[in-house]
Amino acid sequence: MQRLRRKPKWVTGLRPKMEELFGGRTLGEGLLIGFATISGDMVKVNRLKFSSGRVKRPIVEVDGNELRFIYPIKNGESFEGVYYSLMGFLSRV
Prior knowledge:
The protein is 24% helix and 39% strand. By secondary structure, the chain is an alpha+beta fold. The chain has a 5-stranded mixed beta sheet. The longest helix has 13 residues, at 79-91. The radius of gyration is 13 Å and the shape is globular.
């Protein structure tokens, strides 16, 4: 289990990657799988992909300064809702 931080980190690159991935389409049920780099107090999202599947809670794996996350999306969630909840989640890694 990953312990979350009290002091939030800056998260960069998430919104452009999400906009590129979804391009105005509606979000369906599935998983956002992302790869990021941790540098000091910043998390930089490098890659993001959408996959079918299901997990109950977000999953985070940290290996050195590399971060991998799996974030579930429920059917009918808005782009903004997913973006802000994922941003909050990543800022506490």
